[in-house]
Amino acid sequence: MQQDLRELYQEVILDHGKHPRNHRHPPDANHEARGYNPLCGDQVTVYLSTDDEGRITDAAFEGHGCAISIASASMMTEILLGKTEAEARQLFDDFHRLCTEEDFSLETAATPDKDALDRLQVLAGVREFPVRVKCATLAWHAMASALNGGEDATTE
Questions:
Q1: Is the pLDDT of residue 23 over 90?
Q2: Number of other CB atoms surrounding residue 122 within 10 Å
Q3: Among 8, 29, 11, which Cα is nearest to 19's?
């Protein structure tokens, strides 16, 4: 059973890595930030469009990197649609915990969107490989930076 789950997770990551969703530069983005991982060279630019109430109406990215980095960015852009800026920040915090804390569980997550966090479980295996945590969280750091005014994010 555990092996089947790992294989499913690998398939999801490979699918998003080879066929990323929202890999584009939207012309109406009003938030943007770049992320760079100097350890492996992964680079990503995250674009967000928000409405007057701070709700994310579009999320996209451009860049290159490993399958984990691209898959995470792809999944993030799908999950962020319709979220408020506050919800996106909370999801980032919980996703970071998912990738770094061994005892993290959906029950302890602060985000009300447990389904979104559950979908991101495919990336939780990176916590066993600290260098890969930076790959999985790169786009998320860039997203948070975009919401905070566009300062570029570097994972070190």
A1: yes
A2: 22
A3: 11
What pLDDT is stored for residue 97 in this prediction? Answer: 96
3-state secondary structure the chain: CHHHHHHHHHHHHHHHHHCCCCECCCCCCCEEEEEECCCCCCEEEEEEEECCCCEEEEEEEEEECCHHHHHHHHHHHHHHCCCEHHHHHHHHHHHHHHHHCCCCCHHHCCCCCHHHHHHHHHHHHHHHCHHHHHHHHHHHHHHHHHHCCCCCEECC
pLDDT at 111 over 70: yes
Count of all residues that appear for the chain in the document: 156
Span between the terminal Cα atoms of the chain, in Å: 35
Q: Which two tokens stand for residue 128?
A: 């066993």
Residues 59 and 46 sit within 8 Å (Cβ to Cβ): yes
The predicted model gives 70-89 an average pLDDT of 97
Beta strand 31-36 with 56-64: parallel, antiparallel or unpaired?
unpaired
Which residue, 144, 107, 138, is CA-closest to 123?
Answer: 138
Supply angle C-alpha 122, 104, 133, rounded to 5: 55
Band (4; pLDDT cuts 50, 70, 90): low
**In the predicted model, what is the mean pLDDT of the chain?**
91
